[in-house]
Every structure is written in C-alpha cells, then in structure tokens.
Amino acid sequence: MKKPTTIHDIARKANVSSATVSRVLSNSDYPVSKALQEKIRRIAAEMNYIPNLLGKQLKKNVSMTIGVIVPSIINPFYSSVVFGIEEIARENHYTVVTCNSLQDPTLEDEYIRTIMEKQIKGLIISSISKDKSLLKNSIQMGLNVIAIDQTIEEEGVSQIKFDYRKGGYMATKHLLSKGHSRIGYVTSRLDRPSRQSICQGYLYAMKEAKLEPIVEESKSEELYNAVFDFDTGKKLANKLLAAPDRPTAIFACNDMMAFGVINELSQQGVKVPEDISVMGFDGIDFGLMIHPPLTTIKQPDYDMGKLACRLLLDKINGEDSPTFDVMLQPKLLERNSVLPISERV
Amino acid sequence: MKKPTTIHDIARKANVSSATVSRVLSNSDYPVSKALQEKIRRIAAEMNYIPNLLGKQLKKNVSMTIGVIVPSIINPFYSSVVFGIEEIARENHYTVVTCNSLQDPTLEDEYIRTIMEKQIKGLIISSISKDKSLLKNSIQMGLNVIAIDQTIEEEGVSQIKFDYRKGGYMATKHLLSKGHSRIGYVTSRLDRPSRQSICQGYLYAMKEAKLEPIVEESKSEELYNAVFDFDTGKKLANKLLAAPDRPTAIFACNDMMAFGVINELSQQGVKVPEDISVMGFDGIDFGLMIHPPLTTIKQPDYDMGKLACRLLLDKINGEDSPTFDVMLQPKLLERNSVLPISERV
DNA sequence: TTGTATGCGTTATCAC
DNA sequence: GTGATAACGCATACAA
Question: Which keywords annotate this record (chains A, B) (predicted)?
Fold first, then answer.
C-alpha cells in the first residue's frame, strides 16, 4: 500500500510546476499548451493519479455532497424518495449521505451537526423534532434545506409539500361516490401534521356529506416500523368490526396499515371488497402485489425525491436562493379493494 | 451568512495559540491546564464553533465515512442491509454514503472512483460487474472492502456470504417433506452466482429424491425492480400452469417473484396453498402481510448489514487486517403458503 | 504546560 | 503560458 500520487509527484516527473498540473487535471479553463496538457495527462494516468477531494474541497469550501435525513429507509416510501434523490445527485456528480433518524430528535440533531462539520451545504430532511433551533442555526450558517413530507415552519426552508388534506378528502370522496356512508378511518397516532391533514380531509368530506365520522386512532408511538403499522392496522380493524354498526368501507392512513386491515378482515372471514371496501394511502408498489390490489392515494415518492434534489442543487448553486413551496398533488390509484355499495353481496 | 469560526478565531479571542485550541477542542490527551480548557470551551461555544472536518481529515488522512454500493435500495432486502450498516456506522461515528448501482458496471466503477477520491477507506459492496480491475486497484491503494450478497473472488476482499445453495436445498427439502414431488422452480435469469446456487440446491435436493426437476427461468434482464420481479413471477407461474402435468408446489428464487406466483395462481382460481403450495426466498417483511403468509427462507438482511459494517470497521482500524469469509446460514420461516400434500383438497 | 512552525493536497493570486 | 507561493482549517513535531 504505497501512498497515493499527488499533483506534486506528477509535476516533478513532468518537469512542470504543480500549478500547471492542477490547471490541467482540474479541467480549469486556464490556458495551458496542448503539448503540456497531453504530457501531464499521460503521466497522471501512468502514475494512477486519484485526486484527493479533501484538499480540493478544503480549498474551495464545497463538498459535492448532500445529506438526507429520513425516519427510516426500511419504509418503502422513504426508500423511494432517497432513491430519487440519489439519482439526481449522481447526475450532478454529488454524493448522498443517508441518515435514518428513527424519528429520534436527538439523533436528528446529531446528524445535522455531522453534516455541518463535513461542510455539506445541502440537506433534504423529513424532520420530526419539535425543537428546530439547531436546524435554524445551521441555515444561518449557510446550509440549504429542503423539507419533505413534514412541514418545517422556519424561514429559509423550502418545502416540497404534499396535499395530504386533499388526499384524505379525495379518498373519502371516492368511497362516498361508490355509495358508502359508514366509512371508518384508521390512523396511527395523530401527532404529525401530515397525519392530521389526511384526517382533516376525511372529516371534511364526511361533514360535507352530513355523515358521522368514525375515527380509530392508535395511541402507541413506537419507532417507525412496517410490521408495526401492519399490526396496528389489524388491531384497529378489529375494533371497527366489533362495533355495533360495522362500516362498509375502511380508509387507512397509510398502505401498510391498509394491508393490516385487509389481512385482519380476511382472517375474520370478512371479504374485501365484497363485504368491506378498503382504501390505503401512499401508493407503494406492494399495493399491487396483494389480493385484492389496493385502491389508494398515490403520493409521488420517487418524483418527490427527484424534485427535492433538483431544487436543492439549484438552491446551492444559485446566487439568489428564493424560498419556495411546492405542493404536490395526490392522485387516485383505482384498483380492486373498493366496490360500489350496490355491488356488495 | 457570516463565515464560520475557526480555531484561529477562538485562539485570538482567548489569547492563546491555535495549537492549544486544537488540543482542547479535538479532545486530544495532550495536557492543557484546566483553566485554559474551560476558557477555550466557553469561547468556542460562544462563537458557535463548528469544526471543519475537511481540514482535520486532510491532515489525518481519514474520512470517517464508509461507502455502500448496492443494486437498489428500493429492494427491501438491500434497504434492510443498508439500514443495518447505517446503525453500526452511526454508533461508531461514521457516516454512510449510499450508492445505487442499478447493476450497471459503469455506474459501479464511477462510484468506486468517487469513493476513492473522497478518501473513503471502507466499502461494503454487492458487486455485479465482471471486470473487477478498478476494485482490485483500489484495494491495493488501501481501500478496505467487504463483499456482501455477491461473491468477489479477489484477494484481500472479505466476504459476508450467505449459503444460497443450502437455502435452495432447505426449501426444496421442506416441500419434499410435506409430500410434494412435482415441485417447480421459477427463477430470474441465472446469470448471478447467488441465483445459480439456489438453483443448484433445488436441483440437488430433487436429484437426491430421484425426482424430475422443473425449472422455469426468465430470460429477460431488466434493471432491478420489484414490480418487474413480481410480473416475472406471474409469467412463469402461468407457464407452469399450462404444462400438462402441473406441479403441486412452486418454489421461487425470491419473495417478490413468489408474490407474483401467488397472485397469478389466485387470479386463475388456483388456491394457495390448498391447490398449490408456494415457497419464497428472502424473508422480507411483506411476506407476513400477504395472504397466505409466505413460507420462505430467511436471509438475514439487517443482521448481515450490521455484521458487514462491524467487520469493515474492524478492518479499517485494525493493524492486522486478515481476510476472512463469513458464511451466514439460511433459516426456514414456516408460515402458511405450504400445505402437506395429504391435506390438499 | 504553552507556543511556533510546518504540512496534509489542492486551488488561486501573483509575478514572470 | 508557466511557475512560485500563499492560502483553506486542522493537527503535530519541535521549541521553549
């Protein structure tokens, strides 16, 4: 393991100054004679030169890296987002540092600190912590931030929002349009604005239709975990089934819970959608793979990641960095877990 | 956006040398008087000091970062692996750069190059490319590499292997033990050693039982994609159904394909497991969420990630870095998609 | 115990 | 066109 070649090594071998080598190998537009260019490139290749970005970055005060903080990439929604981010980052020669916050504010701050120390200038974050003081401070120090999924009411933070409320409204309206009137809503703990918004959409649609809302909220607050949501869906479905006046349709706050609902219903001999219709929320691919394929609201995860990264890079590179909000629109994915009330058996 | 404070700024304000500041703030064991320590720490805090790791890393020639290259974190198997890696990395104050190679050798090399340039000393990789010359070269330059999932026959590369062959064998034996004799095997393109090994395990078990193997291989070679595997499963299941002598059990090379198989069977009115039993391979959580819950072979994804990262960090930090192989063992996850032939209806 | 000075690998500002 | 040299922020060998 010999130590790596530097521009100085190349300079010595080529009988030129390291300045010239730098100018050539960093593709600067500074004029260097064709002859020297070729010579230097040849020698660099011969010597297996690998530029040390640490040096370059220290000098130029950039890191060509962006940070991403999400609750957990185990969650297919976030893994799609990160996948989209990474794609755009790669196209622009940026690398991505992925951080799983596990919805732990302490971890979140730890990551932000590391990101700042590593001189990373851009961050895409789905933040969960209440105390945004470190984030705020970091922004003042020059960090460019795009918030996804979770709203951050902080000056200078651009948002990629998703119209959760409309999504909740659309889902409920869809169920209503199929003739359902006893529509249950199952949701994980209503402590995040996104969850609250979906619920508001549901409530609003029900109110509009002059119907009684039926909300089952899970009070537990475990760390983010797919199987946990699934189990929650099962539990809440159970509650709904036990009620004197069973709903004819159940709307779940995310797909994973909807899977749990469907599973529990099937297990209890309740047919989906013949007996009870089920709607999800997220539009992850697995919805296609279960039986029946899940009717759901599509949240554009992958595209959200791509967009977030594009906007972040613009912000990092742009002289003017206006703060902006983007509101992505929900889309109904009509599959087979919802049946018109008229066709119920 | 004022420019960040350095140890020099602090030194000036504290009327000490920057060396002393460095010694205090980097928690060096170099002796500094209690009084000065406190003074320096206080001023550092007042000035909102954030150490610039670029400087530190350039000086010490470390980067406290590891790289991870996997085909795609969209794949739940890999997202679990990466999640495990990230957990151990965090505990050790390392950050993780995540790269999705999309099974594209060009991209893979591009990432390796970037990793070297960023002075990253450790890499966990599921490599797909045939030409390992760049990787080999990087190892000689001091890169520590742990190969997961895909074997890399290169000197100095430690492997976290998984006994695919035994997994394939165990799955088939399980089916055999339930009395099945017409057992079909559906697999994506047999161009990766892991896929071949599973198939070999299947073939060996069949041969041992003196039974005729039935292998359906997909010839298409799309980029890694969950829905694609699902569709492949559907297609291959179809072929198997069309055969004159239908199998009573189908073993799929991964869970996603097994979902496709189950879906197609259900759609064609074939009941799982009453009419045909289905086995998967991977043990991803979603297997729990479908109906019937998928009997499968567990590949310890999350633990594999944790182990890989632990071994990598040992290797980076250890004076002696012996090359080693770890062979993780498959585990049967018995759920409800397999029925003894005697109980078939 | 503290300070001075040098260098990590690179780019940028000069001068030639 | 090219070269010498000074930064970038930090850690450390050496001096004091």
Answer: DNA-binding, Transcription, Transcription regulation
pLDDT tens column, B111-130:
999 999 999 999 999 988 88
Is residue B128 within 8 Å of B75, Cβ to Cβ? no
Length of chain A: 345
Alpha-carbon distance of B18 to B9, in angstroms, equals: 8
CA distance A183 to chain B (A): 23
CA dihedral A3, A6, A10, A16 (to 10 degrees): -140
Residues of chain A neighbouring B4 (CB-CB closer than 8 A): 141
Angle between helices B34-46 and B18-25 (to 10 degrees): 90
Residue-level pLDDT at B221: 73
- The reported pTM is 0.93
Are B257 and B238 in contact by the 8 Å Cβ rule? The answer is no
Q: How far is the CA of B13 from the C1' of C4 (A)?
A: 18
Partners of B217 in the beta sheet? B187
- CA of A175 to nearest chain B CA: how many angstroms apart? 23
CB A186 within 8 Å of CB A233: yes
Q: Residue with CA nearest C1 C1'?
A: B32
CA distance A178 to B92: 54
Residue B295's contacts (CB-CB under 8 Å, 6 or more residues apart) are B174, B277, B278, B279, B280, B332, B333, B334, B335, B336, B337, B338
Question: What pLDDT score does B70 carry?
Answer: 96
Q: Decide: helix, strand or coil at residue B17.
A: coil
What are residue B159's DSSP bridge partners? B147, B325
CA pair distance B252, A177, nearest whole angstrom: 40
Token pair 């909000």 is at which residue?
A325
Give dist(CA A143, CA A123) in Å, integer.
7
